[in-house]
Amino acid sequence: MRTAYDEIADWYEGQFLGAQQSDPLGISAALRELLGEGSGACLEVGCGTGVHAGVLRELGWTPVGVDLSAGMLRYGRERMPVARADAQRLPMRDSSVDAVVAVMVHTDMPAYPAVLHEVARVLRPGGVFVHVGVHPCFCGSFADRSDPAAAVIRAGYRERRWTKDSWTDQGIRDKVGAAHWPLPELLNALVDAGFGLERFSEGGEPLPIVLSVRARFSIDGGAAGSA
Q1: Is 224 inside a domain boundary?
Q2: Is 49 within a domain?
Q3: Which residues, in sequence order, are bridge partners of residue 144?
Q4: pLDDT tens digits, one per residue of 134-180
Q5: Minimal CA–CA distance to 211: which of 107, 90, 76, 72?
Q6: Where are the beta strands (DSSP E) in 11-155?
Q7: What total of structural domains would you count in the chain?
Q8: Which tens digit of pLDDT belongs to each residue from 79-136?
Q9: Does 223 reside within a domain?
Q10: With 80 as the cut, is the pLDDT of residue 222 above it?
Q11: Rounded CA gap, 78 and 98, in Å?
């Protein structure tokens, strides 16, 4: 089965990533702040080409990745051990990983709440999960960011739908489409999956582009304490 990302894997690795400055959205900074140093296996759900593996290793973790796109994994396997699998059916035992990260992928997953439940299944009790994603309030088909100094927010924020509508043809949304999750639905999905929310951060200038969350899973569905 081919995925939409198979069609753009070479462009993504060679042009999209190559054109970016050093951590323009603060993704690496968010991982350092919210995941922090640790040891053991850290699963990246929707790892794509594996570009975040280096940061995970710097923090002491052993990165492993899962993605559905064979095209993206051609690059990903050069950076860490990977498996091709659906994020709703992770090929891992219950309570088998120490940490999980999902980086800029929740808009690629129409069933993200189901993915979060699967993350909770494979994460050991007390394990940390870090979500780094497109900011629900400032990015989406309802947001025009063509002016670097301002974002124009139009009607549509409350609509949870899949679309390729985008203010730019230099990004990913116009090529493969994206889902939108209003902020309450995103945070409630984390809580419903049994995570206690601990810390938050935003990245991107001058208005946030990325929202990041650190959450912790406990077997009783509540917060399990801070790192």
Answers
A1: no
A2: yes
A3: 152
A4: 999 999 999 999 998 888 999 999 988 899 998 888 889 999 999 99
A5: 107
A6: 41-45, 62-67, 82-84, 97-103, 123-134, 143-144, 152-153
A7: 1
A8: 999 999 999 999 999 999 999 999 999 999 999 999 999 999 999 999 999 999 999 9
A9: no
A10: no
A11: 22
CATH code: domain of residue 155: 3.40.50.150
Task: Give the whole-angstrom CA distance, residue 178 versus residue 136.
Answer: 12
Helix and strand totals (H; E) in the chain: 7, 11
Q: Is 226 exposed, middle or buried (0-12, 13-18, 19+ CB in 10 A)?
A: exposed
- Structure-block tokens of residue 90: 């992770």
Of 12, 90, 103, the closest CA to residue 55 belongs to: 103
Please report whether residue 227 resides in a domain: no
Place of tokens 């939409």: 4
State the residue for tokens 């570009």.
51
Which are the contacts of 184, defined by CB distance < 8 A and separation ≥ 6?
Answer: none
Count of alpha carbons within 13 angstroms of residue 140, beta-carbon side: 23
Report the 10 Å Cβ neighbour count for 21: 6
Distance CA 207, CA 104 (A): 17
Length of the chain (residues): 227
